[in-house]
Design a protein that fits this description.
The chain is mainly alpha-helical. The protein is about 70% helix and about 0% strand.
């Protein structure tokens, strides 16, 4: 299994698209946090409403689409280029191959969450100056929020990878998931409350707090999102093992 994981990681990072997407996912939240910190106006109501410990975490949502794209590219690239047959000739154990892909994707998503969010928080508070916190003032709640952002990234990446494997193309994944995480469902949840159980909204408060919108709290929401991920991973694994390697 270790050799298969190493092979999947090597394959993933030979793709320029994966390299660029990973770099963008690492850079986008910190860059946006820095810009937000430099433009901070303490007299505005929106700025006054944001708790000091929340600064930097509000940009985590902008990393989600890139994490989705990263997972979709890693899984969908082999269908697109027809290289999955070669992979399965080298490692005929299909379950091991798919499991290794998921391990690589989840690990990369976790790493992106930790690195990008840590940088975003540090840069935002540095840019805020006297309105921000010193590193020595960072709280355990901020460390927990860093963990929950990373968990959210890993779960949304597993969901994206599973949808890609089921559809055998990353296009379906992007069409289905990207509009959701960019705000389609959160704009409708007040009208259609059951939307809060969709995977994107269920775990959204793992990223940052959305008060007064009627969403699930972080813990139950995270569990619902994890249940979606488990269901889709199981379905994708079943199909990956049993059907042909064509792109549909």
């Amino acid at each position: 299994m270790i050799r298969t994981i190493h092979a999947e990681l090597t394959k993933a990072f030979t793709l320029r698209s994966v390299q660029v997407t990973t770099a963008a996912a690492l850079v986008a939240p910190p860059a946006l946090a820095l810009a937000s910190g430099l433009a901070f106006d303490p007299s505005s109501p929106a700025s006054a409403a944001l708790r000091p410990v929340a600064h930097g975490f509000e940009t985590a949502g902008f990393g989600q689409p890139l994490v989705i794209l990263l997972a979709a590219l890693i899984v969908g690239g082999e269908y697109l280029h027809g290289s999955l047959r070669t992979t399965l000739l080298a490692t005929p154990q299909r379950g091991r191959v798919f499991g290794a892909k998921l391990v690589v994707i989840a690990a990369l998503a976790l790493a992106v969450g930790v690195i990008a969010t840590s940088a975003a928080v540090l840069l935002k508070h540095a840019a805020l100056g006297e309105h921000g916190l010193r590193v020595s003032e960072f709280t355990p709640a901020m460390a927990l929020n860093l963990l929950t952002v990373s968990i959210n990234y890993a779960l949304i990446a597993l969901i994206a990878a599973s949808i890609t494997a089921l559809a055998r193309t990353f296009i379906v994944t992007l069409i289905v998931l990207i509009p959701l995480v960019l705000g389609l469902t959160i704009s409708l949840v007040s009208v259609l409350p059951p939307l809060k159980f969709l995977p994107d909204l269920a775990g959204i408060q793992l990223l940052t707090s959305y008060a007064g919108v009627g969403l699930l709290d972080p813990l139950p929401g995270g569990l619902v999102m994890a249940a979606w991920a488990a269901l889709l991973v199981s379905s994708a694994s079943f199909m990956f093992v049993r059907r042909d390697t064509g792109n549909g």
